[in-house]
Every structure is written in C-alpha cells, then in structure tokens.
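User: I'm putting together notes for a lab meeting next week and I want to include a structural view of one of the chains we've been expressing. I don't have a solved structure, so I'd like a prediction I can at least talk through. The sequence is below, exactly as it appears in our construct file.
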Amino acid sequence: MLSKIFSCCFFGLQGYCVEIETFISRGLPSCSIVGLPDASVNESKERVRSAIKNSGFEFPLNRITVNMAPADIRKEGAFYDLPIALGILLSSKQIAPAFPLEDTAFIGELSLGGQLKSIKGVLTMTISLKEMGFKRIVLPADNAAEALMVDEMEVYGVKSLGEAVGLLQKPDSFVCCTGDAKPAERDDPDERGLDLTDVKGQENAKRALEIAAAGMHNIILIGPPGSGKTMLAKRLPTILPDLNTEQSLEVTKIYSIAGKLKGKSVIRRPPFRTPHHTISAASLVGGGLIPKPGEISLAHHGVLYLDEIPEFPKRSLEALRQPAENETITVARINATFSFPAKFLLAASANPCPCGYYGDNKRECRCSPRDIRRYFGRISGPLMDRIDLRVEVSRIGMEDLEKKSSGLTSVQVKERVICARKLQYKRLKEMGKMYNSQLSIKDIEGFCSVGADAMDFINNAYKNLDLSARGYVKVLKVSRTIADLEGRNSVGLKDVAEALQYRISG
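Assistant: Thanks for the context. Below is the predicted structure for the 506-residue chain, given as structure tokens.
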C-alpha cells in the first residue's frame, strides 16, 4: 500500500516542503530511503524500527521503500523520523487516519523508545509551511512554544510516536496548543548588572559608544592593557534599543536554525557575539556542506565584538569586508547559493602594539617600529577604512578610580539613542532603511544638510588629512548621527569636527 505524508526541510533561511511516500511490497525484508538523504536520514531506519516496536506496533517484514521528494534537494537531519514512522504504519494498515493529511506537516526526531526529541529550525519551517498553505503542524511538544510564534497556524505538540498515532486516529481527544504556551520574552542574562557607570572615566570612549549605538556605526577601541576597552564594549548592548517585532522574528529564525534558542525564549534584545580569535573564516561568515549561519549572522541587528582584533586570522578578518558593507553574506556551494542577513555593528578592541604600551605615559614600549607596523598590519587598510569610529582609550588616572560613579547611566544613554533612532527611522523609512550607517551617497545629499562653514571644514580635512572617499562619506554619516543625538535638523561645524576627530584618532 502507498501512503503520503508531508514534512519540511530548510536551506539557509528558507523552508521547503518534503513529500514522504512510503510503499510496502512483497519481497525480502528491507527498508530503503531514496531522495538524496544524508547519513543521519539513512540512520533513521534503525531509530524508526525500534520506536515502532517499542510503541506497541509491528514493523513490517516486507520490502519498504521510502521516497523523499523533491529528489534534487539534499535531506539532512533527524526530523524526518516521525513522518517516516507514520508512513510505515499507514502503509501497513496498522492505523487509519481520521485526520486531514493534505494540509498537515509532521516533523520530529524519535528515540529508540518512541519518544520525540526537540529539534532545531522549527520557527523557519513553520513560517515556510504557512506560506505554502499548510494549516497545521505536528511536532515535538518541546518545540510547540517556538512554532506558536507563527499566527494562524494550528500547532499540535506530542511527546511520543504513540501520541502522534492517537492524534491521527482520534483528533477530537487532542487540544491544539494555545498562545499560553508561547515562549516568554526575556532580557539577555549577560546584560544583567552591567552599566556604563561601572567604567571609571573614559568619557570620550563612552560618547563614541553612544554615537555608534545611535547610528549603528562600526567602532574600534585602541589602548593599553587594563584601560577598560573590553569593559566598555561589553556595555554597548545595554544602550541599544530593543528589537521591534520584525527584527525579533528575523533574529529568532537565525538562532532557531543554529539551534541556539536559550530557554525557548523570543529574542527581544540585540545579540552580542564575542567569538574567540582562533575562529575560522567559515565559522565567522557561515559554512558547511549545507551552510549554516555564522557569527556575523548570529549578530544580526546586534553587535559583533572582536576582542584583540589583530590576533584574528587575516583570512577571517578579510571575510568581514563584504558583509560589513552590504549587510548580507552569500555562501556558494555546488548545489545552491545561500544568503544570510548580516546587519551588525562591528565593535573591536586592540592594543597599540604587541607589548601593549606604545604611547603609554607610564610604561615604556619594548616593541620595535617594525614589530608595531607588522602587528597593526594584520588589519588591512580596506577593513580599517570601513570602521567609522576610531577611539583612543588611555590609562585611567587615580582621580577617576576614586570616583564612585562616572557619567550617565546606561538607561539615560539608551533613552538618547532611542530618540536619535526615531529621527532616523522617520527620515529613512520610505527607503526601507533604519540607520544613518546605511545612507548612500545620494541619501547624504538629500538628508545631510551641512552648513557652508562645516562643508569648508570637511573639504579642507579631505585634502590635508588624505581621507579616502569612503572616509569622507563616513564622516558625514557620523556627523548626521551626532546632530540627531542633539536633536538638530542640520549638520553643523561642531558635529563635523567631532566626527572627524573619531576618524583620524587611533
């Protein structure tokens, strides 16, 4: 007998419907899975066999053929166990469905005892299934809360193969999951207790962080060891506004595919990713036989922080150049080309030399000029040119250390950032943009109204300081953000001067 059950798979951030056909015929006992399955799908034969027997059913001693269509898309993962097991039970006439299968999708990994285990990528698959016209989805109970983030989709969470069979035979006895099971919205626990006032002194660096957060400008902090570079960078997320609904869904989809949803919570706070300097280029931008999101995509709408950036492999750093400019990363493989979003704020820190004390007024640098050039030469000119704010972080004086608190709190700075973001959104929403860092040259001509004295100042700086054309544009973008923080419609000489200061510093 032939049976047909629908499931789903995903490539990149896009889900695809998988039609699982099961046919049982006479012949020597065997089970074959066709349709370009990978090793984990082929291994499902043994999991399904054991799960069926341990759930009180009989595994047919006949020739079983399972076809997974479309056959030109590679099937990867263990979430086809449940539909394959149900297909075998339907084809062997051990169960008769009283449930519509044409608009229902089944996903789930089975244990040998027949229990269903949680899987990754549920949010992406649920969204795609809804777009394809499916009305309901049956999946592990642990993933029900994630699927309920998609409105107008019936979600049935089951704990075992036996419960899934009971749902097919007696659907009236099962209740569809409700919104009460939706994941809670929680703040990032890594931000708890962190505040800008924890950092003594460094008012110039705090101001630069505020500008970076307001306009999503890339920033690098350069200074000797112990000056507070990492401490400052870790407090950058505390002054970033919460994600809106659309951004939250985008980020949560990425984390769902990567299997990194913590506590089944909706991500409402901007991500803060801090990869180690030994990370490979593939882990940073995304990769694999079927590429998965890398660190730059996990930092989407948030911060990618590279601590001691000169220690990172040059190949990994060079891989950041294109996504930092285009806000997306494209990974090409033989079978397909995948694109992942990468709209992130690049934050970095670095010592001024290998020993860390070049230019310090207390300790003498032991590095030769050649060592210093070689050390910073690991950061290429094109990548450094894409960093908007370059900030020198100097040694903290004793008078600053003795102060109980210093400057504005993170909450106060965050309110200023939110006001500046609102001005940017109001100005740029018709073009589908949100931040001043996304302004094009044409946009700058329309939205950066610069006074005559300020324009003369920046033109002279361009000639005398050997700024690149990109550097010239970035100064104007940062100037626009500084004006937004002060609530000014036009960009003045003071705004340009401050933006230029951060461009030539470091």
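A couple of points you could mention at the meeting. The chain has a mean pLDDT of 87. The CA atoms of residues 353 and 490 lie 39 Å apart.

User: Perfect, that's what I needed.
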